[in-house]
Design a protein that fits this description.
Chain lengths: 116, 114
């Protein structure tokens, strides 16, 4: 299967700890997105990369959050000093740009974070 | 700012009957509109998109959606519902300028009864 993969699928951590999630996009996709989804809500945009450049960040992305995509392939999302309000599903998506065409975003299965 | 409204938290329909899941949007410029479906413990799956052209868009699994610019709506439809269509459906939008990220609605749970 060559879809978007995310690791880990589930993470339980204690408040104040740091956590890091990984996303591997579809191999030819150079755009990568992170979203957060809480229960009963739709996904909310966090940040977006084109190749290794982080081009857009949401105001939801506080200074405790940092994302990287060092070689333009996989990406990591780190949350420092986790809070209970960070408990959510973290979704990664990727897409392929084209001249004048808009390709849909393909989503991974998500990482469910529980902060206790 | 862009936004999406899905006015129904849940839609119930009998198997074999037509279904409609409603979506209205607000965006600057021309809209790009998407429908995704989410099954339990699975990621969001793309169903269909409207970029330009024909207002009736056909997608996966027999779903279609109608773009109505004057009503700023993009309702999802299917002529004959299946029990297996039961899932959470999300409408999403982005404009043709500015931010590339999608703005999602809060979702509508579709329940198809046998």
């Amino acid at each position: 299967d060559t879809g978007v993969s995310q690791d880990p699928r589930h993470k339980i951590t204690k408040r104040g700890q740091n956590v890091t999630f990984r996303c591997d996009p579809i191999s030819e996709h150079n755009r990568l997105y992170w979203y957060r989804q809480t229960l009963g809500q739709g996904p909310e945009f966090l940040t977006y990369f084109q190749n290794e450049a982080q081009l857009e960040k949401s105001r939801l992305l506080s200074d405790r959050f940092s994302a990287e995509r060092p070689k333009g392939s996989f990406s990591t999302l780190e949350i420092q000093r986790t809070e209970q309000g960070d408990s959510a599903m973290y979704l990664c998506a990727s897409s392929y740009p084209s001249q004048g065409l808009l390709y849909e975003q393909y989503f991974g299965p998500g990482t469910r974070l529980t902060v206790t | 700012a862009q936004s999406v409204a899905q006015p129904e938290d849940q839609v119930n329909v009998a198997e074999g009957n037509p279904l409609t899941v409603k979506c209205t949007y607000s965006v600057s410029g021309n809209p790009y509109l998407f429908w995704y479906v989410q099954y339990p413990n699975r990621g969001l799956q793309f169903l269909l998109k409207y970029i330009t052209g024909d207002n009736l868009v056909k997608g996966s699994y027999g779903f279609e959606a109608e773009f109505n610019k004057s009503q700023t709506s993009f309702h999802l439809k299917k002529p004959s519902a299946l029990v297996s269509d039961s899932a959470l459906y999300f409408c999403a939008v982005r404009g043709d300028t500015g931010r590339r990220a999608l703005t999602f609605g809060s979702g509508t749970r579709l329940q198809v009864q046998p």
